[in-house]
Amino acid sequence: KKERKRSSTERELGKVASSLPPPPDSRLYIRRKKNHPLVMASKDADPSLGYLTRKDTEVKLPRPTRVKNKTPAPIQITAEQILREARERQEAEIRPPKQKITDPTELADYRLRKRKEFEDVIRRVRWNVSVWIKYAQWEESQKDFNRARSVWERALEVDYRNHTLWLKYAEVEMKNKFINHARNVWDRAVTLLPRVDQLWYKYIHMEEMLGNVAGARQIFERWMSWMPDQQGWLSYIKFELRYNEVDRARAIYERFVQCHPKVGAWIRYAKFEMKNGEIVRARNVYERAVEKLADEEDAEQLFVAFAEFEERCKETERARCIYKFALDHIPKGRAEDLYRKFVAFEKQYGDKEGIEDAIVGKRRFQYEDEVRKNPLNYDAWFDYIKLEESVCNKGRIREVYERAIANVPPAEEKRYWQRYIYLWINYALYEELDAGDMERTRDVYRECLKLIPHEKFSFAKIWLLAAQFEIRQLNLKGARQILGNAIGKAPKDKIFKKYIEIELQLGNIDRCRKLYEKYLEWAPENCYAWSKYAELERSLSETERARAIFELAITQPALDMPELLWKAYIDFEISEGEYERTRGLYERLLDRTKHLKVWISYAKFEASAMENDGDLDVPEDGVPEHDHEAKKGCVQRARRVFERAINYYRTSAPELKEERAMLLEEWLNMESGFGELGDVSVVQSKLPKKLKKRKQITSEDGGVSGYEEYIDYVFPEENQATNLKILEAAYKWKKQKLSSDDE
């Protein structure tokens, strides 16, 4: 009835509230008023900012105060003064008053209150171990050990896997000398948590402190049945050694190396035997370890320890054998420390050969490491091969060469093969010169020539070395076959030159001609080949053949160095005394090019043509008339060549002023060299004037970046034309002035 009456009253109050107008700050009012600031702000609200606007979330920092006077204050305050003042002004700490308990009733009340507090906290945070520990320790402080044990047991029911609880519980029992209770706690702990080593250590320590050695040993045996880590076994061994039980310790070591067959365990076992003076037993331990662990990753450590043991026993030969056995069986990448120890051992106990062998072994290890990291590092292979060649072990040298040449470059591009090919060359030279095995040398050259992709690129050096090797073996047919294959598969200039040189030394002229023909078929633009072919024919006094070769050469549409070919042809005709043919050649050359050097060479030829005439009888009283006339004719012909050249530069190439000036200087020098027949004034009237001028330097963006000086040449006809232009301009100006005066 009361609830029904209350609900009806609430309904009536709701009707009255709905009839009243909403207050200005209510949500309904805000919903009705569209222009209310909260309604407007909701449009800009961001859901990621909790429906606040960006303006609401802005951090409004205080306006920074402007310091007008920045001069230092007369009284300076240090940080120490500020800290001292803060300490002095600090209020005293409020501490609860100390309570003194005077009678048992107050003590009972105090205990009841504290227990209630602890129980309330435990109800709230039952899983918090620290609360349980505080509760139990408080009960212990009240000397109520039964209640304390009860708290510890309740805590263990909550989390028995927490070994801290067991440790604290047992320590409390031990501290208060409840030995049987503590033993009971430790026993339960190691039964429930056998993998927590600390529990076993504490348990054993307690028994040992109590003098219960047999009990401690029994606990150790229980622990060892769980096969703990190495430290547990070593603790057991130390325990036995503390009581001088060497045989028991040896038996534990045997079980230890069976449980943990690692290098460190065996080394500890051997050192234990060595410490007790059992050298034979120690050596036996090392030998058993080598049999079982020779292929392990850390076998290097075992071999080093074994060798050092033999070294301490003055068994140097045994130690050396162990080092060598280890170096042969351990991969090079894992034997760095072993090599270092071996080198130090040989320096101490070995002779000169042993020391060198050890050093070579160390360097060999370094090179092996390098070529393992990057097999295509051919420089490392060269150094490695050089090292092996210094040792003079044929088997190892050939093995390293074979391993090196097996690393073929990955791409068929010549730049990758340029270093690699020298491995084959060095291999062949080693087999021929050092090993003296000619068949292997021939096989090396043959395999190398098979490997090179001659369709894309080739190496003339390999072909020539193979051919020269066959010649040294007096196998001329084999050499010709190799060079013929080279010309057929990969013709090169070096191959043609060397083949022609070999045949020329043998006096086979017909073969030389055939080779030159092949050479020119392959490279018709090669001026060197044409010149050498003509030179060969000339040396054989075949003038017409040489001339025909030169004629064929200059008619080729493209030549790599035509100036050398023309010069050779002209020198050939001059040496033959054919001046008319030489002039014809110069004229044909001028039809092709009007280069400055061609004009100068032509003029010099005309000037010196007289000197090559036949010998004349010179009378005693003077120069023969024929000689004088011939010299004058040479001078005239040279002048005509120079005049033609100057005329060409003046009319057809006026922009080549520097070449024209150089030509005039050459002409002047020649006229002065003619002596009485020369006329220097002819040239001096044509010499230009040198003028220094400046011109703008335009930058990349089109602007003017500065000026530079250059030498300009002004020739006499240009100077005269300039003077005429000045006179013409002056005449026009005078005419304009007279007409203006008349007006």
From TrEMBL:
Give residue ranges for domain Pre-mRNA-splicing factor Syf1/CRNKL1-like C-terminal HAT-repeats: 280-359, 437-583
Basic and acidic residues bias locations: 1-14
Compartment(s) where it occurs, according to its Swiss-Prot or TrEMBL record: Nucleus
Where do the segments described as Disordered lie?
1-27
Q: Which UniProt keywords apply?
A: mRNA processing, mRNA splicing, Nucleus, Repeat, Spliceosome
**Domain of life, source organism:** Eukaryota
Give the Pfam families listed for this entry.
HAT_Syf1_CNRKL1_C (PF23231), HAT_Syf1_CNRKL1_N (PF23233)
Q: Which InterPro entries match?
A: HAT, HAT_Syf1-like_N, HAT_Syf1_CNRKL1_C, Syf1-like, TPR-like_helical_dom_sf
Mind telling me which SUPFAM superfamilies this protein's record contains? TPR-like
Q: Does the keyword Repressor apply?
A: no
The Pre-mRNA-splicing factor Syf1-like N-terminal HAT-repeats domain sits at 117-262
In terms of SMART domains, this protein maps to:
HAT
What is the recorded function of this protein according to its Swiss-Prot or TrEMBL entry? Answer: Involved in pre-mRNA splicing and cell cycle progression. Required for the spliceosome assembly and initiation of the DNA replication.
PANTHER family referenced in this protein's UniProt entry, alphabetically: CROOKED NECK-LIKE PROTEIN 1 (PTHR11246:SF3), PRE-MRNA SPLICING FACTOR (PTHR11246)
Similarity remark:
Belongs to the crooked-neck family.
Q: What's this protein's name? A: Crooked neck protein
Q: Which organism is it from?
A: Hibiscus sabdariffa
Q: What is the lineage of its organism?
A: Eukaryota, Viridiplantae, Streptophyta, Embryophyta, Tracheophyta
